Amino acid sequence: MKINILKFRKISWRITFTYAVVFSAVVILLNFLVLYGVRFYLRQQAITQVDSIGKNIEGKIAVCKKGDVCR
């Protein structure tokens, strides 16, 4: 009794296997693209927020140095 796991005799099995491999590769690629896209977006938003808060604090310090009321 011969066991041929990867020898597909019918063309439909070959097409199905090829389609499954290509589909899996595309899904994995899209998964990584979304993951790194979201990571990039979140990092950029964090940098923007830190920069904005830093400028706000610098402005408040400048007002306090002028002798105005510091709150």
What's the layout of helices and strands?
Blueprint lengths: L10 H55 L6
Describe the structure.
- By secondary structure, the protein is an all-alpha fold.
- It has one domain.
- 77% of the residues lie in helices and 0% in strands.
- The chain is rod-shaped and about 90 Å long.
- The relative contact order is 0.05.
- The model has no long low-confidence stretch (mean pLDDT 88).
- The chain crosses the membrane at residues 21-42.
The H/E string reads H
* Rg for CA atoms: 29 Å
Count of β-strands: 0
Q: CA-to-CA gap between the ends?
A: 87 Å
Task: Give the uncertain stretches in residue-range form.
Answer: none
In short:
This is Integral membrane sensor signal transduction histidine kinase. The chain is mostly helical and 71 residues long.
Entry keywords:
71 residues; transferase; 1 helix; 77% helix; mainly alpha; single chain; transmembrane; rod-shaped
